[in-house]
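Before surveying the methods themselves, we first show a specimen of the format, giving the amino acid sequence and backbone structure tokens:

:::
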Amino acid sequence: MKGFLFAVVLAGAIGSLQAQPQSKTALLIVDMQNDFVRKGAPMEVSDARNTINANQQLINIFREKNLPVIYTKFLATPQPSLIYQWSPKLAAPVNACKKGFKRSYEDAKGELECAEIIDELKPGQSDIIIEKYGYGAFHGTQLDSILKSLNITSLVVTGTVTQICVEETAREAFHYGYKTTVVSDAVSSFAPDLHNAMLKNFAMKFGWVKTAREVAGAL
């Protein structure tokens, strides 16, 4: 019975294309960038590498169904700002997540653009990329207007870091009126306790928390 209720609720969350032909859901992948995911990266979240497969599965499903796939990139502000106080590696000489800056990683050949999406989840030509200078993907960006132009009413959110950029983005989505599902095995953190707390709290007051397999089944 519980599984049936979830299917009904999530179907409502991601929209029924038969009942509401103008409504759609989008996959929003938060900050799966080289400087977070690659081994030895300055902002490394090692658990992010364990979520690559789940993200790949969801990307393939959304593309097969011709539903939007949207990526976000966390970028260091061109000049030092308040966020540097909390993430000092954004500053020189490390230059974490600096657009155009290249570095080498332990699990990659040659130098890579540090702020680029990892090759394993490489955006396609029709995918959308949102660049942001803060934690949330809605603040100071065109994300909301883009979603509205695509008739998006609900979001499936994945990425890193669970309790920072993923949480901020998912909460913003709630306040912008999007029915939002965070995918528990497609988000990652460097702090398991904060990861678990975020998922528990989000499911309590802001949206749904489900596995990639559950989301795929509901779609």
Remarks:
- The beta strands are 24-30, 69-74, 102-104, 111-113, 128-132, 152-160, 179-188, 208-210.
- The domain at 22-218 is CATH 3.40.50.850 (Rossmann fold).
- The two ends are 19 Å apart (CA to CA).
- The chain has one domain: 22-218.
